[in-house]
Structures are given as structure tokens and as C-alpha cells.
């Protein structure tokens, strides 16, 4: 028995988000690349840098360089990056502007770049709010899987996306699936990626975190 949790129509296709009797949630969608949490904490490329040489454009994070410094050009940028005392993006050593994921590692401070899930090295999926609101169990930190073109990668649910968007992967997950992994120009626009998650079942090395 499968229950329809809802549908998300965007970018020329509709994703039907379904929940099986055993609790598995699944949907088909495209794959945008989410660089959030890539802060260089494992020696890989950070998502955002003060000179805009990170894996992701500052503009895609709602930021801009004005007068030689990075500012929040969009109000929502403040929900993406760690801020300094001036309420603008804080610049860490190496010019890193640290971005956050919905999942934060227990015991680490909110202003610690290592507190978040590294998109460059950790396969994760991003879920729309509809999934969080309508599933039976806890979603953040749960086991997940993404599959495309005969390949699959085990993941964790580490980030939450916008209301009208389904289909987003970390850089590491895209790389494992053979999908162009660049946050700047990668991903795929066809709804041929299968996203699966198992609420209430923590991914290895993670804990469930209620929304």
C-alpha cells in the first residue's frame, strides 16, 4: 500500500512523493547540485570563498562583493552562511565563507564550519519541506539513497530545500552517480533520479534530529 504525500510541479515535470507501508519515501526528480556544508573541513574545495573562487558562485548563495567585501545581497543568504558580528558573511581562514546544512553534527557549535555536512565528501540528499511535514517519522539524519542510470549511492538526509523544488544532491552524491557534480554548471534537468529515504532510520554515523 502506497500513500501519496503530495506532488511538486516545477521545471517542466511533476514529482509525486510517495510513502510505502513500510515507511520508505520515494520520488523521481532531476538533480540540482547543493554545495552547502562544503567548508574545506576535509581538505576539499569549499563552496564559497571571499574572492568567488569556490565551487559555487557567491551569487547563487545570495551574496555579492561590494567595496571589496562579501555582503548578503539577498535576505535569505543569512540562512545559508555563518555570519559575523556585523550580520554579514564571516570570512574564515583561507578566505572561506562557511555555509550551513540543515543537519548539524551534535556537540559542535553553530559557528563552527566543521559542524555541517561536507557536500564535497559526503553523499547526501536534499528534501523539500513537504517531505518533512507529511512523513510519519523523523527525516533529518535518516538513511537515504539516490539512483541514476544503473548506479546507486547510500546517502544521509542532510539538507532541506525550497518548497517548490524536488531533486537535489550533494557534490559527492552526484559524483558517485556519474552526474556532472559542479554546483556552478552541473546536475541534470531530466527527472530520472530516484530518491529514497527511510524516516526514523538513522544513516550510519548520524543521529535523527527532529525538525
What this model shows, in words?
The protein has 211 residues and is mostly beta strands. It has two domains: 2-36 and 119-202, Barwin-like endoglucanases (Beta Barrel), CATH 2.40.40.10; 48-98, no CATH class. Helix content is 6%, strand content 38%. It has two helices and 13 strands; from the N terminus they run βββββββββαβββαβ. The strands form three sheets. The chain has a six-stranded mixed beta barrel with strand order 3-12-9-11-10-13. Strand 2 (13-20) and strand 3 form a beta hairpin. The longest helix has 7 residues, at 171-177. The protein is globular.
Give the CATH class of the largest domain: Mainly Beta
Spans where pLDDT lies below 50 across 5 or more residues = none
- What sequence of helices (H) and strands (E) makes up the elements? EEEEEEEEEHEEEHE
Rounded to an integer in angstroms, the radius of gyration calculated over CA atoms is 17 Å
Largest sheet: 6 strands, mixed, barrel
Please state the structural category.
mainly beta
Termini separation: 26 Å
Counted by DSSP, the helix tally is 2
Relevant CATH superfamily of the largest domain: RlpA-like domain
CATH topology of the largest domain: Barwin-like endoglucanases
User: What fraction strand?
Assistant: 35-45%
How are the strands ordered across the major sheet? 3-12-9-11-10-13
Mean pLDDT: 97
How does the overall form come out from the CA principal axes? globular
Amino acid at each position: 500500500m502506497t500513500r501519496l504525500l503530495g506532488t511538486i510541479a516545477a521545471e517542466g515535470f511533476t514529482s509525486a512523493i510517495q510513502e510505502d507501508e513500510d515507511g520508505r519515501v520515494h520520488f523521481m526528480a532531476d538533480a540540482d547540485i547543493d554545495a552547502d556544508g562544503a567548508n574545506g573541513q576535509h581538505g576539499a574545495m569549499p563552496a564559497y570563498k571571499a574572492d568567488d573562487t569556490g565551487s559555487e558562485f557567491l551569487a547563487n548563495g545570495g551574496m555579492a562583493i561590494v567595496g571589496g567585501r562579501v555582503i548578503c545581497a539577498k535576505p535569505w543568504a543569512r540562512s545559508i552562511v555563518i555570519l559575523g558580528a556585523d550580520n554579514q558573511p564571516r570570512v574564515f581562514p583561507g578566505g572561506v565563507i562557511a555555509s550551513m546544512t540543515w543537519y548539524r553534527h551534535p556537540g559542535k557549535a553553530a559557528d563552527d564550519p566543521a559542524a555541517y555536512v561536507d557536500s564535497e565528501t559526503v553523499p547526501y540528499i536534499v528534501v523539500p519541506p513537504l517531505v518533512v511535514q507529511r512523513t510519519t517519522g523523523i527525516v533529518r539524519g535518516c538513511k537515504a539513497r539516490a539512483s541514476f542510470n544503473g548506479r546507486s549511492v547510500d546517502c544521509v538526509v542532510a539538507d532541506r530545500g525550497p518548497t517548490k523544488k524536488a531533486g537535489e544532491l550533494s557534490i559527492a552524491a552526484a559524483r558517485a552517480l556519474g552526474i556532472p557534480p559542479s554546483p556552478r554548471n552541473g546536475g541534470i534537468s531530466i527527472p530520472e533520479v530516484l530518491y529514497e529515504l527511510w524516516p526514523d532510520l538513522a544513516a550510519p554515523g548520524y543521529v535523527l534530529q527532529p525538525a
